[in-house]
Amino acid sequence: MPLRFIIPFAFMFLFGAVARADTILVWGDSLSAGYGLERGQEWPTLLQTRLQAEGFRHVVVNASVSGETSSGGLTRLPAALAEHAPTLVILELGANDGLRGLKPQLLADNLAAMIDAAHAAGARVLLIGMRMPPNYGPAYTQRFAEVFANVAAEKKVPLVPFLMDGFADRPELFLPDGIHPAAEAQPRIVDTVWAGLRPLLAAKVTKAARK
């Protein structure tokens, strides 16, 4: 092939490789899907803005579904991994399992299976923890909270201990149902998630720089 054809093709190939952005898949329930909020107010959208402001070119795909359980998320995940090919999955599921009083061990098994599936697809995982209200009783709430720490330790993935850290006891930051964070709380959630996500992004930048 003449050189005048090789150079444009090589340029297009290199440009495409540079332009391709990594995908962050947010895999959650109504707490991430933006239940009760206007479009664009949910924390995954605000996370996209934070990434751009910090100079990262990642694309956030929010595939969260209101009402989703860990069992449902596990069933749907393989197709989403194949479709979006994420390099990182933010796993935020379990709240609906807890509200339904499901066995913590079932939640642990499903979270572990989703992490395994993400790893097999070449994606890293940031696990987001959840806690139950005190009216579920001290024994259940403790066992539920421990699930996330135990799974994170077993699977060696970073953990954000509690999505609503710092404002769970402030009713003015929730919708009238008292369960879903209001728009005013979404930037706080981004800050909480960012604390766990930022080291993963920095680690990739460092690894890439060494090549």
From TrEMBL:
InterPro entries: Ester_Hydrolysis_Enzymes, SGNH_hydro, SGNH_hydro_sf. One of its GO terms (molecular function) is phosphatidylcholine lysophospholipase activity. Residues 28-184 form the SGNH hydrolase-type esterase domain. It holds the Pfam family Lipase_GDSL_2. CDD domains: Lysophospholipase_L1_like. This is Arylesterase.
